[in-house]
Design brief:
The chain is of the alpha/beta class. The protein has 11 helices and 13 strands. The chain has a 5-stranded mixed sheet, with helices on both faces. α8 crosses α9 (266-275). Bound molecules: coenzyme A. Residues 29, 33-34, 37-38, 115, 156-157, 160, 225, 227-228, 230-231, 234, 264-265, 268, 292, 322-323 line the site of coenzyme A (COA). Pathway: Lipid metabolism; fatty acid biosynthesis.
Length: 335
Amino acid sequence: MFTSKITGLGHYVPENVVTNDDLSKLMDTNDAWIQERTGIKERRHIKKGDGNSTSVMGVKAAKMALKEANLKATDIDMIVFATLSPDMYFPGGGVEVQELMDMKTIPALDVRNQCSGFVYAMSVADQFVKTGMYENILVIGSENHSGGLDFTTRGRSVSVIFGDGAGAAVVSRSEDDQGGILSTHLHSEGKHKDELALQGPSTEHWVPEIIAENPQEDIPYYPYMNGQFVFKHAIVRFAEVIHEGLEANGLTTSDIDMLIPHQANLRISQFIQQKLKLSDDQVFNNIQKYGNTTAASIPIALSEAHKAGKIKKDDIVVLAAFGSGFTWGSVIIRW
Ligand code: COA
């Protein structure tokens, strides 16, 4: 077995900053409500005509990650692309990245695990590298949420939370058998699939059917979220899967140097921090600036934390996510 290591990180967010006050001009909401319930102050939205899309943002993040890894696009053996908001219904974002970055005819795999997407994608990359099949894998999480949210008062409990952006990591084969990705742990519980979902358009809810069958006030082509139900499950599963990962490696919470939780909601991150008895220095949050960017949130946060010098060699870094599906997972890394 080989060792797999993160050798490069990158992130990109659109320039267009959307504050809570900006949203309050579109819907009945306010800065105090949003900050109190979610911790979010602002998020980024793609602006029509700025050239961004889910794949384009993914490429921008990927270029930064490749540069850090000191690799060319042609050195990459596989793309794993996580998103819930692809540019097209099909094909997925992976092939768009392959084309936009002028890569070899390498495999491009799309991962559809929403907020757990990046953790699932990292797990896939880790297996391909550890078994020796590939040497360098580009893992991307990217989301264009603003293209599909309901910015009227009807959609306010969902729309204020989500933002656009992308993050990327290069996962490479390493000779160092002490460090790297130690283990990944993935779970799902499909019985809760309807609690955080976007029903259509899909083969179950195709466009004419949606238009014919749904009154204006009940439109299933906008995301639905049972916020309190999601919150309650998230805090249990986050803690469980972090403990699972630590125990698998003979570690405890006091060994964590940096926890990067999926940026679902600042209250969720704070709850986990308290539950695991971690100090402020052991947890990194940036949801205040970007909102919840789903599959992009962990790689954006990881890239920012790393560039800010908050992650050092030999640190134990834990990535953990929970989201629609429900799905959840963790990645334990010795940096
Ligand atoms: N602005 C102002 N008021 C809002 C609002 C908004 N953006 N969104 C909802 N409200 C109102 C509701 O209509 C409700 O009004 P009512 O009491 O008159 O009926 C009131 O605020 C409380 O709504 P509720 O949904 O009970 O609030 P909450 O305390 O559960 O907070 C969430 C809502 C979504 C912030 C919270 O449940 C949450 O964060 N859940 C987890 C979501 C998450 O992390 N999702 C991503 C998972 S990966």
